[in-house]
Amino acid sequence: MSEHQPAKRLRLILGDQLNAAHSWYQQQDDDTLYVLAELKQETDYVKHHVQKVCAFFAAMQAFANALRNAGHRVLHLTLDDTAKYQDLPALLTGLMSQYQVREFHYQLPDEYRLRQQLSLFCRELSIPAMAFETEHFYLSDSELKDYFFEGKKHRLEHFYRKLRCRFKLLMQGDEPAGGQWNYDAENRQKLKATDFAVVPAPLMFTNDVSDILTRLKRHNVKTIGLAHSSLLWPITRHQANELLQYFCRHCLANFGRFQDAMTHELDMLAAPVNGELALAPASDAKVEQVTTPEYKKQWSLYHSRLSFALNAKILSPQHVVDTAIATYQQADGAITLAQIEGFVRQILGWREFIRGVYWANMPEYACLNHLGAKRELPSWFWSGNTNMNCMQQAIKQSLDYAYAHHIQRLMVTGNFCLIAGIDPDEVDAWYLGIYIDAIEWVEMPNTRGMSQFADGGIVGSKAYAASGNYINKMSDYCSGCQYEVKQSHSDNACPLNALYWHFMQQHIDDFKANPRTRMVYANWLKKPPEAQQLILQRAEFLIRNIDNL
Ligand SMILES: Cc1cc2nc3c(=O)[nH]c(=O)nc-3n(C[C@H](O)[C@H](O)[C@H](O)COP(=O)(O)OP(=O)(O)OC[C@H]3O[C@@H](n4cnc5c(N)ncnc54)[C@H](O)[C@@H]3O)c2cc1C
Ligand code: SF4
To answer: Quick one: which ligand is closest to 479's CA?
Structure first.
C-alpha cells in the first residue's frame, strides 16, 4: 500500500502512550493510520533535560517500528517533518486533510494541558472524534471520581489498603499478608561503608541517540543536563523488561531497607575506569568529557529506575508489581515481606494516589501556594555549584543522569526550596524539566503538594521540612561538606539548620496545632530568646545571600 493512500481513521499516539498491550492493536486494519509525532510544543513547554527528550523521542521511534513490524500502518514524524506546523491541532488538521480522514481517535492524555488541547480541538472538528482509556493504570480514568474529591485531604494509607484488598495483592483473605499493612519500621536504614561492597552496579543501556541530538540542535531546542550520544535509559519493552528483571534479581531484596539512604562516599571508594563517552552536543546542553561511568553506583543504589518505562507506558504497573511479587514468592525467604511491601506501596499506592489527586484538583492545583512562597530559585540549581554538599550531590547527579531518587528529591532539593520559601511555580518548572520521568500528572502533586506543602495538605499531612540533622542521619553527605551540621548560627553553620527554624517560626500558625510538629515547637520555645534571635538572623543573612551558599 502506498504511504499516502487515504485512511479512514487517524489514531494519535502521544509520547507517553507507548502501551503495546492496548486493545487498539489487537486488530490490524489498513484503514487505520497510527500517528506518532515529535513536536516543538512538547520540547518547549518547559526546559527539559536533554536525556529526557532523547528518551521520549527514541522510545516513540522504537514503538513506531514495533507497530509497523506487527503489520499496522504507522506514520512517525520527526521534528523535521512537523516544524512547519504551529502545534498539535495544526498538525492533525493538516494530516486529516492529506489522508482524507473520516474519524479521529485518541487516548486520554494524562496531562491536563494536552487533554484540554485535544478536547477543544475535537469540539471544532467536523468528523466524529473518540477518546479512549489508556488501559494502563490500576484505576481507569472513569473510576477516579469514586476515590478522589476536589480539595479533600486524602491520605495514602487509606487508599492503598483499599487497592490492596480490591486487587488482592499481598493479602491473606481479608487481612494483609504477615498481619501488617506497613513495614516502614524495618526499612529506611542508612547505608554504611560496610554495606558498600554489595551495592549492585546499575544496568545501563547504550541506545544511540546521536541523530536525535543533531535534530534537537537543528531545531534550536533548548535543554539542560549532560548530553550523551549513548542513552542509558530503556526505550523498548524488551529493555524495560530487562531492567525489571535486573531489579528483581539484584535490588528488590534491599529495596525498602535502603530506600531513603544517600551517599557520596560509595563512588569515591571505587576506582574510576579511564575512558570516554562519545558525546554529541544538543544546543546549549552541557557537554563534557567524562570517565566511563560503569563504576558509579551511588546514584541508583537499590532503586528500580523504572519510572520512565512506567510513565511512558512501555511497562504496565500491573506487570511490574506482579513480576516483583512472583520474584518474592520464589525467593524462598531471601526477599522479606518488608521489602516487597515497600515496593508495591510505591506503585500500587503512591503512583495511583498521586494521579487521583491530580485529576480531582486540576486546573486549580497548578496555582496553589498555601505558604505564600515567592522567592526565586537560586541560580546554582542549574549547575550544582554550591558549597552545600547535599545539594551539590543531588543537583549534579540530576544534571548528569536526569535522575535522583525519591529522598533526594523530597528531603534534599525539595526541603531546601520549602524552607527557603522558593515560589512553587519555579520549583515545579525545575522538577518538570530535569527528571527523566517528569510528566505533570505525577510531578506536580509530588512537588507542589508533597514537597512544598503548597496545597495546604491535600497530598500529605505535614510539611516535609527538615534541618541538617535529617540529612546527616540518612546520608554521609555532611562528612564531605564545608558547613558544620551540628551548628546553627555560626558563620560556618549548616544553612539548613537556621533556614529550618526560620521556616517553622514563620509558619507557626500553620503548623503549631499539627500533632506531627507539636514537639518541634516545644523544642524551639525551649531555646533562650537570644539563641532564637541569632538563628533567625543567620537565616536572614542566608536568604539575602542565597545565590552564594
Ligand atoms: C519533589 C518530587 C518530584 C517527583 N517527581 C516525579 C516525577 O516527575 N515523575 C515520577 O514518576 N515520580 C516523581 N516523584 C516520585 C519518585 O521520586 C519517583 O517516582 C522515583 O524517584 C523514580 O525512581 P525509581 O523508578 O527508581 O523509583 P523506585 O524508588 O524504584 O520506586 C518504584 C516506582 O514507584 C513509583 N513511585 C514511587 N514513589 C512515587 C511517588 N511519590 N509518586 C509516584 N510514583 C511513585 C514510581 O513509578 C517508581 O518507578 C517525585 C517525588 C518528589 C518528592
Ligand atoms: S552540613 Fe548541611 S549543607 Fe552540608 S551536607 Fe550536611 S546537611 Fe547539607
So the answer is: 2
Residue 502 and residue 540 in contact, taking contact as beta carbons nearer than 8 Å: yes
Within a domain: 371: no
**Looking at the structure, do residues 72 and 161 belong to the same domain, yes or no?**
no
**How many structural domains comprise the chain?**
3
Asked if residue 509 has pLDDT above 60, the reply is: yes
Tell me the ligand closest to 387's alpha carbon: 2
Q: Confirm or reject: Cβ of 306 under 6 Å from ligand 1.
A: yes
Query: Which ligand has an atom closest to residue 392 CA?
Result: 2
Q: Is the Cβ atom of 22 under 6 angstroms away from ligand 1? A: no
Range of the domain at 427: 379-548
* Atom 41 of ligand 1: nearest residue by CA position: 350
H or E stretch at 175: strand 175-176
Work out which ligand 2 atom sits closest to the CA atom of 388.
3
389 lines ligand 2 (CB under 6 A): yes
For 121-132, how does the pLDDT look when each residue is reduced to its tens digit (9 = 90+)?
Answer: 999 999 999 999
- Tell how many helices (H) and how many strands (E) occur in the chain: 24, 9
Query: pTM for this structure?
Result: 0.94
Q: Poorest-confidence range of 151-160, 416-425, 531-540?
A: 151-160
pLDDT at residue 292 tops 80: no
CB proximity list for 396: less than 8 A, separation 6 or greater: 384
Q: Given 105, 132, 159, which residue is the final one in a domain?
A: 132
pLDDT in tens, 306-323: 999 999 999 999 999 999
In a domain, residue 4? The reply is: no
Alpha carbons 491 and 483: distance in angstroms, whole number: 9
How many angstroms is it from 225 CA to the middle of ligand 1?
19
| 95, 158: one domain | no
Name the band, by pLDDT with cuts 50, 70 and 90, for residue 294: low
Distance CA 116, CA 127 (A): 18
